[in-house]
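REQUEST ID: PR-0412
SUBMITTED BY: lab tech R.K.
PRIORITY: routine
TASK: structure prediction, single protein chain
INPUT:
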Amino acid sequence: MITFICNKLGRDKGLEGFKSENIVLHYKILSGAELCTALKNKIVEEAHEVNEASTQQELIAELADVLEVVDGLCKVYGISANDLQLIKKEKKQERGSFEKGLYIETIEMNDDNPKVQHFRASPTKYPEI
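STATUS: complete
OUTPUT:
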């Protein structure tokens, strides 16, 4: 028998599908902090799959997976869909959306600008050149 390491969150009906294909899963049921961590990891995984999608159908399927994980995160953190939409609307009104395609290549500011601390606090995200 061949064994592969998986170590990732699977969909609830995955057990049935694998059993019908004579595949044995070794698994555990997560809850609490473990489930929260697994869902956060899952959304990163799904975001990578969105990036790798090469057709419209693949993109739609991967975006649906992202939404499914968002729903799961909202459930475990007790966030309602209404709360999520409200914050989305507020952020859009305050900061705008991503629809115009604004792509920021670099950010320049004076050394005494208070925002310098924000960017220097995340050197991997915002490398200083």
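NOTES: The chain has one domain: 14-120.
REVIEWED BY: pending
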